[in-house]
Design goal:
Length: about 350
């Protein structure tokens, strides 16, 4: 099952308890030194002709494959509309996520991620790579959250489970569709073949960024790339906070365009698959003094036993220089857990 296999990828790089347990944000009045970063440059870049917002792609557009391929290449991130997921479902997931994060710390600890685990409550996996902690708590779910939900709400866990399972199902279908479009762009003649050669897995990460007394010196999530093929992100309540590092522009906010637009970003494995053509976008999250932001990130990629290698179309085969060697997903995740972004130089030719 997906859970155990992803856990397999992480178990050789266990985190220490200190790096998993978030502080109790509900009882804290000021930012402790452990979470105090040097001043964050959080001036929001305004969008104009010279500095456009990320592409917004209508999934029903006849030229969706070209639009998406172009967005992956130039931005590594885009927003999608007409994706077929109902607003009510986003509201339900947000409601259940907020219900979870509002629980007292001693309840949330009952479902904490184990030191080598992949699911449960805890800090971001990148935590050990930074000397300061992030203003963030997360809850990771793969398939059914039943065991955890029963511990939290022994008599009232059904709704939480139904909503989270339903959302993952919808995200899996949408992710698969997006991958089809993207693979069709990378290898126009062989799309079905390429995608059918992978078995996929997904994980849902509920992110919580509590109100922060000093947002100029705190970070919701430190700069990172996502590891898998792609991430589908929903910013609940249209609360901004996500920024990407854009060449020549610095940190740029991704403004929510509408309640039902979803953000899609390229992850490391798709960067490798595209032979470096699609950037795995470097991003971070800012926090707010008065708004408690919640986001829903769905990570989607091949099963950990899959082998990833750059795809080049047969017509290009002769002239193209391969940038990355073949790598098993499990090996890749293990290397990233040890070395973070340095992982790219370790698999580059
Ligand atoms: O909350 C966000 O806007 C981004 C979340 C994110 O980057 C992640 O979960 O990897
Ligand atoms: Fe991310």
């Amino acid at each position: 099952m997906a859970t155990s296999t992803l856990e397999e990828a992480y178990k050789e790089n266990p985190l220490s308890l200190q790096h998993i347990l978030p502080i109790d944000f509900q009882s804290i009045q000021e930012v402790p030194n452990s979470h105090l970063w040097p001043k964050i440059n959080n001036v929001l870049t305004s969008h104009n002709d010279k500095n456009p917002n990320v592409p917004i792609i209508d999934l029903l557009a006849p030229n969706v494959v070209e639009l998406m391929g172009h967005a992956c290449k130039t931005w590594g991130i885009f927003q999608v509309v007409n994706h077929g997921v109902s607003l009510e479902l986003f509201d339900e997931v947000e409601y259940q996520a907020r219900r979870f994060f509002a629980l007292p710390a001693e309840q949330k600890v009952k479902v904490m991620r184990s030191t080598s685990g992949a699911t449960g409550y805890g800090t971001a996996r990148i935590t050990p790579f930074f000397s300061k902690f992030m203003w963030h708590e997360g809850f990771t779910i793969m398939d059914s959250p039943l065991d955890h939900a029963k511990k939290l709400w022994p008599h009232d866990y059904h709704k939480f489970c139904d909503v989270m399972e339903n959302y993952q199902k919808k995200m899996k279908v949408l992710s698969f569709q997006l991958c089809l479009f993207i693979l069709n762009y990378l290898q126009p003649s062989q799309d079905q073949h390429s995608i059918n050669s992978f078995e996929f897995a997904g994980a849902l990460q509920l992110n919580s960024y509590p109100c922060c007394p000093n947002p100029n010196h705190a970070l919701g999530l430190a700069p990172h790339t996502d590891s898998l093929f792609l991430t589908i992100l929903h910013q609940t309540n249209n609360t901004k906070g996500l920024q990407i590092l854009k060449k020549d522009q610095g940190w740029t906010s991704i403004a929510p365009v509408s309640n039902d637009a979803l953000i899609v970003n390229v992850g490391d494995l798709l960067h490798i698959l595209s032979n470096g053509e699609f950037p795995s976008v470097y991003h971070r999250v800012l926090v707010d003094q008065t708004k408690h932001r919640v986001s829903l990130a769905y990570f989607f990629g091949p099963q950990v036993d899959s082998m990833i290698s750059p795809l080049v179309s047969s017509k290009d085969n002769d002239g193209v220089v391969l940038k990355y060697r073949n790598v098993k997903v499990k090996e890749y995740l293990g290397l990233k857990a040890k070395h973070l972004e340095k992982v790219f130089s370790m698999i580059r030719f």
